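agent: user wants the structure for Ubiquitin domain-containing 1-like from Olea europaea subsp. europaea. delegating to structure tool.
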Amino acid sequence: MGCAGSRDKADAKKIRKPKPWKHSEPITRAQLIQMRDEFWDTAPHYGGRKEIWDALRAAAEADITLAQAIVESAGVIVQNPDLTVCYDERGAKYELPKYVLSEPANLIRDN
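agent: tool returned. relaying tokens verbatim.
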């Protein structure tokens, strides 16, 4: 018997890759990497705990199996299975744009 706020592993949502998406205009891999870096550099300033942001970044950059283990071990509550909306155990909300989670369908080759 646990406390009312405890979660069972069976209750944890299984994460998955985001559905295919397109950026508003075709972008290169270098531009995508720059967008991701800018997001991760500024994300902690929007609230929440740095260690959760770090865990979410590690999960976003990992394969699905490892990402699942990362979010579970960090105590991240997954609202959307594609990780676009998550919460920490204190109720802080973390929103991740799809561009940090997967590549757009209109990614173009760098010159």
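agent: one observation worth passing along. The first strand starts at residue 27 and ends at 28.
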